[in-house]
Protein backbone atom coordinates (compact mmCIF):
# COMPACT_ATOMS: atom_id res chain seq x y z
CA UNK A 1 0.00 0.00 0.00
CA UNK A 2 1.37 3.41 -1.00
CA UNK A 3 0.48 6.43 1.11
CA UNK A 4 1.29 10.09 0.51
CA UNK A 5 1.35 12.50 3.47
CA UNK A 6 1.09 16.14 2.53
CA UNK A 7 3.03 17.45 5.49
CA UNK A 8 5.19 20.14 6.96
CA UNK A 9 3.47 20.16 10.36
CA UNK A 10 4.25 18.61 13.73
CA UNK A 11 1.27 16.32 13.28
CA UNK A 12 2.52 15.15 9.88
CA UNK A 13 5.93 14.27 11.32
CA UNK A 14 4.30 12.41 14.19
CA UNK A 15 2.08 10.52 11.78
CA UNK A 16 5.06 9.55 9.62
CA UNK A 17 6.79 8.30 12.74
CA UNK A 18 3.79 6.18 13.67
CA UNK A 19 3.56 4.63 10.19
CA UNK A 20 7.25 4.34 9.29
CA UNK A 21 8.34 0.74 9.16
CA UNK A 22 4.82 -0.70 9.02
CA UNK A 23 4.97 -3.95 7.03
CA UNK A 24 3.29 -3.62 3.66
CA UNK A 25 3.31 0.18 3.75
CA UNK A 26 5.24 2.41 1.32
CA UNK A 27 5.19 5.92 2.80
CA UNK A 28 6.16 9.27 1.26
CA UNK A 29 5.97 12.65 2.99
CA UNK A 30 5.76 15.76 0.82
CA UNK A 31 6.99 19.17 1.99
CA UNK A 32 6.29 22.45 0.24
CA UNK A 33 9.89 23.65 0.56
CA UNK A 34 9.13 27.08 1.98
CA UNK A 35 11.41 26.64 5.01
CA UNK A 36 15.15 26.58 4.38
CA UNK A 37 15.95 23.84 6.91
CA UNK A 38 12.75 21.91 7.63
CA UNK A 39 12.45 19.24 10.28
CA UNK A 40 12.28 16.10 8.20
CA UNK A 41 9.96 13.23 9.04
CA UNK A 42 11.20 9.64 9.01
CA UNK A 43 10.96 7.76 5.74
CA UNK A 44 10.99 8.96 2.15
CA UNK A 45 10.59 12.71 1.68
CA UNK A 46 9.94 14.80 -1.42
CA UNK A 47 10.26 18.59 -1.42
CA UNK A 48 8.48 21.02 -3.72
CA UNK A 49 5.13 21.56 -5.36
CA UNK A 50 3.24 19.27 -7.69
CA UNK A 51 2.06 21.82 -10.24
CA UNK A 52 -1.47 22.33 -9.00
CA UNK A 53 -4.29 19.82 -8.71
CA UNK A 54 -3.61 18.37 -12.15
CA UNK A 55 0.04 17.78 -11.35
CA UNK A 56 -0.80 16.16 -8.03
CA UNK A 57 -3.38 13.89 -9.66
CA UNK A 58 -0.79 12.84 -12.25
CA UNK A 59 1.75 12.15 -9.48
CA UNK A 60 -0.78 9.99 -7.60
CA UNK A 61 -1.44 7.94 -10.74
CA UNK A 62 2.22 7.65 -11.72
CA UNK A 63 3.24 6.44 -8.27
CA UNK A 64 0.14 4.27 -7.83
CA UNK A 65 -0.77 5.92 -4.53
CA UNK A 66 -3.51 4.16 -2.59
CA UNK A 67 -4.31 6.87 -0.01
CA UNK A 68 -3.53 10.53 0.70
CA UNK A 69 -3.47 12.33 4.04
CA UNK A 70 -3.63 16.11 3.99
CA UNK A 71 -1.71 17.08 7.13
CA UNK A 72 -0.69 20.53 5.92
CA UNK A 73 -0.78 23.71 7.98
CA UNK A 74 -4.28 25.10 8.66
CA UNK A 75 -3.34 28.23 6.71
CA UNK A 76 -1.93 26.41 3.69
CA UNK A 77 -5.42 26.44 2.24
CA UNK A 78 -4.63 26.14 -1.47
CA UNK A 79 -2.99 22.73 -1.21
CA UNK A 80 -6.01 21.33 0.63
CA UNK A 81 -8.29 22.23 -2.29
CA UNK A 82 -5.73 20.86 -4.75
CA UNK A 83 -5.56 17.64 -2.74
CA UNK A 84 -9.33 17.25 -2.71
CA UNK A 85 -9.59 17.76 -6.46
CA UNK A 86 -6.59 15.55 -7.26
CA UNK A 87 -7.74 12.71 -5.02
CA UNK A 88 -11.18 12.79 -6.61
CA UNK A 89 -9.70 12.85 -10.13
CA UNK A 90 -7.33 9.96 -9.36
CA UNK A 91 -9.98 8.04 -7.39
CA UNK A 92 -7.76 7.89 -4.30
CA UNK A 93 -9.16 8.08 -0.73
CA UNK A 94 -8.29 11.34 1.06
CA UNK A 95 -8.23 12.08 4.79
CA UNK A 96 -7.64 15.52 6.32
CA UNK A 97 -5.63 15.68 9.54
CA UNK A 98 -6.56 19.08 10.98
CA UNK A 99 -5.56 20.11 14.46
CA UNK A 100 -8.39 21.82 16.40
CA UNK A 101 -8.34 25.60 16.52
CA UNK A 102 -7.75 27.58 19.68
CA UNK A 103 -10.69 28.53 21.88
CA UNK A 104 -10.66 31.63 24.13
CA UNK A 105 -10.98 31.13 27.87
CA UNK A 106 -11.85 33.45 30.74
CA UNK A 107 -9.49 36.43 30.80
CA UNK A 108 -8.62 36.38 27.11
CA UNK A 109 -9.08 39.63 25.17
CA UNK A 110 -9.32 38.41 21.60
CA UNK A 111 -10.15 40.40 18.48
CA UNK A 112 -11.27 38.41 15.46
CA UNK A 113 -9.81 39.15 12.01
CA UNK A 114 -10.72 37.56 8.72
CA UNK A 115 -7.33 38.20 7.11
CA UNK A 116 -3.89 39.66 7.75
CA UNK A 117 -5.05 42.91 6.13
CA UNK A 118 -7.96 43.09 8.55
CA UNK A 119 -5.61 42.37 11.45
CA UNK A 120 -3.41 45.29 10.34
CA UNK A 121 -6.43 47.59 10.32
CA UNK A 122 -7.21 46.72 13.93
CA UNK A 123 -3.75 47.43 15.33
CA UNK A 124 -3.75 51.26 15.57
CA UNK A 125 -6.60 51.06 18.08
CA UNK A 126 -5.05 48.30 20.16
CA UNK A 127 -1.37 49.01 20.77
CA UNK A 128 1.97 50.32 19.57
CA UNK A 129 4.36 47.45 20.34
CA UNK A 130 3.24 44.44 18.36
CA UNK A 131 4.38 40.85 18.70
CA UNK A 132 3.69 39.48 15.21
CA UNK A 133 3.69 35.67 14.98
CA UNK A 134 1.98 35.12 11.64
CA UNK A 135 5.13 34.06 9.77
CA UNK A 136 7.29 35.85 7.24
CA UNK A 137 5.08 35.42 4.16
CA UNK A 138 2.38 37.97 4.99
CA UNK A 139 4.37 40.93 6.30
CA UNK A 140 3.33 43.12 3.37
CA UNK A 141 -0.09 43.50 5.03
CA UNK A 142 1.61 45.44 7.87
CA UNK A 143 4.09 47.43 5.76
CA UNK A 144 2.00 50.60 5.88
CA UNK A 145 1.91 50.83 9.67
CA UNK A 146 4.54 53.41 10.62
CA UNK A 147 3.01 54.07 14.04
CA UNK A 148 3.63 50.58 15.37
CA UNK A 149 6.84 48.78 16.29
CA UNK A 150 6.89 45.08 15.42
CA UNK A 151 8.67 42.11 16.91
CA UNK A 152 8.46 39.57 14.10
CA UNK A 153 9.11 35.92 14.96
CA UNK A 154 9.70 33.52 12.08
CA UNK A 155 11.75 30.47 11.20
CA UNK A 156 13.53 32.17 8.26
CA UNK A 157 14.44 35.81 7.74
CA UNK A 158 11.65 37.85 6.10
CA UNK A 159 12.07 39.81 2.88
CA UNK A 160 10.53 43.19 1.97
CA UNK A 161 7.96 44.56 1.95
CA UNK A 162 7.64 44.60 5.71
CA UNK A 163 6.90 47.11 8.49
CA UNK A 164 9.39 50.00 8.64
CA UNK A 165 9.95 49.62 12.40
CA UNK A 166 10.72 45.99 12.99
CA UNK A 167 12.95 43.64 14.95
CA UNK A 168 13.24 40.04 13.73
CA UNK A 169 13.47 37.06 16.06
CA UNK A 170 14.48 33.88 14.23
CA UNK A 171 13.11 30.96 16.18
CA UNK A 172 10.78 28.00 15.90
CA UNK A 173 8.53 26.23 18.37
CA UNK A 174 7.74 24.59 20.58
CA UNK A 175 7.89 27.58 22.94
CA UNK A 176 7.66 27.56 26.72
CA UNK A 177 5.33 29.64 28.85
CA UNK A 178 8.23 31.12 30.84
CA UNK A 179 9.96 32.05 27.62
CA UNK A 180 6.87 33.76 26.22
CA UNK A 181 6.29 35.65 29.47
CA UNK A 182 9.86 36.96 29.39
CA UNK A 183 9.58 37.90 25.72
CA UNK A 184 6.44 39.98 26.30
CA UNK A 185 8.03 41.66 29.32
CA UNK A 186 11.42 42.34 27.76
CA UNK A 187 9.99 43.85 24.57
CA UNK A 188 7.12 45.64 26.35
CA UNK A 189 4.61 44.07 24.00
CA UNK A 190 1.12 45.55 24.23
CA UNK A 191 -0.64 43.59 21.47
CA UNK A 192 -0.15 40.13 19.96
CA UNK A 193 -1.11 39.08 16.42
CA UNK A 194 -1.41 35.40 15.58
CA UNK A 195 -3.09 33.03 13.19
CA UNK A 196 -5.44 30.43 14.62
CA UNK A 197 -2.92 27.67 13.97
CA UNK A 198 -4.06 25.53 16.88
CA UNK A 199 -1.85 22.95 18.56
CA UNK A 200 0.33 23.13 21.63
CA UNK A 201 3.69 24.16 20.15
CA UNK A 202 2.90 27.89 19.97
CA UNK A 203 -0.06 28.12 22.37
CA UNK A 204 1.95 29.40 25.40
CA UNK A 205 2.01 32.90 23.89
CA UNK A 206 -1.77 33.02 24.36
CA UNK A 207 -1.46 32.16 28.03
CA UNK A 208 1.31 34.71 28.50
CA UNK A 209 -0.81 37.38 26.79
CA UNK A 210 -3.81 36.53 28.98
CA UNK A 211 -1.73 36.79 32.15
CA UNK A 212 -0.28 40.14 31.05
CA UNK A 213 -3.63 41.57 29.92
CA UNK A 214 -2.32 41.89 26.36
CA UNK A 215 -5.02 41.91 23.66
CA UNK A 216 -4.68 39.31 20.90
CA UNK A 217 -5.70 39.69 17.27
CA UNK A 218 -6.56 36.21 16.01
CA UNK A 219 -6.72 35.65 12.25
CA UNK A 220 -9.40 33.11 11.33
CA UNK A 221 -8.55 30.01 9.35
CA UNK A 222 -9.29 29.93 5.62
CA UNK A 223 -12.10 27.68 4.37
CA UNK A 224 -11.45 24.00 3.73
CA UNK A 225 -12.88 21.66 1.09
CA UNK A 226 -16.28 20.23 1.89
CA UNK A 227 -16.91 16.51 2.03
CA UNK A 228 -13.39 15.47 3.04
CA UNK A 229 -13.37 13.26 6.16
CA UNK A 230 -11.35 14.76 9.01
CA UNK A 231 -9.53 13.60 12.12
CA UNK A 232 -7.95 15.75 14.81
CA UNK A 233 -4.82 13.76 15.64
CA UNK A 234 -2.06 11.57 14.20
CA UNK A 235 -3.21 8.46 16.09
CA UNK A 236 -6.61 8.57 14.38
CA UNK A 237 -4.97 9.15 11.00
CA UNK A 238 -2.63 6.20 11.55
CA UNK A 239 -5.59 3.95 12.34
CA UNK A 240 -7.32 5.15 9.14
CA UNK A 241 -4.26 3.96 7.19
CA UNK A 242 -3.68 0.66 8.96
CA UNK A 243 -7.37 -0.25 8.65
CA UNK A 244 -6.80 -0.23 4.88
CA UNK A 245 -3.81 -2.56 4.90
Account of the protein in words:
- The chain is α/β, with parallel strands linked by helices and 245 residues long.
- Helix content is 29%, strand content 22%.
- The protein is built from seven helices and twelve strands.
- The protein is elongated, with a radius of gyration of 19 Å.
- The relative contact order is 0.18.
List keywords for this structure.
245 residues, alpha/beta, six-stranded parallel sheet, 7 helices, 29% helix, 22% strand
What would you say about this model in short?
With 245 residues, the protein is α/β, with parallel strands linked by helices. It is built from seven helices and twelve strands.
Report the strand count.
12
**Count of helices?**
7
- The shape is elongated
Largest sheet entry: 6 strands, parallel
How far the N terminus sits from the C terminus, by CA atoms, comes to: 7 Å
Mean pLDDT: 95
Low confidence ranges: none
Strand order of the largest sheet: 3-2-1-4-5-12
Helix content: 25-40%
Class based on secondary structure composition and strand pairing: alpha/beta
Order of helices and strands: EHEEHEHEEHEEEHEHEEH
Strand content: 15-25%
Radius of gyration: 19 Å
SSE topology:
Blueprint: E1 2-6, H1 10-19, E2 26-31, E3 44-47, H2 52-62, E4 67-70, H3 77-90, E5 94-97, E6 110-113, H4 116-122, E7 129-132, E8 149-154, E9 166-170, H5 177-186, E10 191-195, H6 204-212, E11 216-219, E12 230-231, H7 234-242
Parallel strand pairs: 1-2, 1-4, 2-3, 4-5, 5-12, 6-11, 7-8, 7-10, 8-9, 10-11
Helix pairs in contact: 1-7, 2-3, 5-6
Amino acid sequence: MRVLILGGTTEARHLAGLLHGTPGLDLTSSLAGRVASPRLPPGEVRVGGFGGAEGLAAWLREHQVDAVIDATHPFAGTISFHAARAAADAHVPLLALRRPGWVPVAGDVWHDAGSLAEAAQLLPGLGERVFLTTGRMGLAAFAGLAGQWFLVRSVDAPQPPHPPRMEVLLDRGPFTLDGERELLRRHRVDVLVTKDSGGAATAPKLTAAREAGVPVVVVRRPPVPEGVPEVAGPDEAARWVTDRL
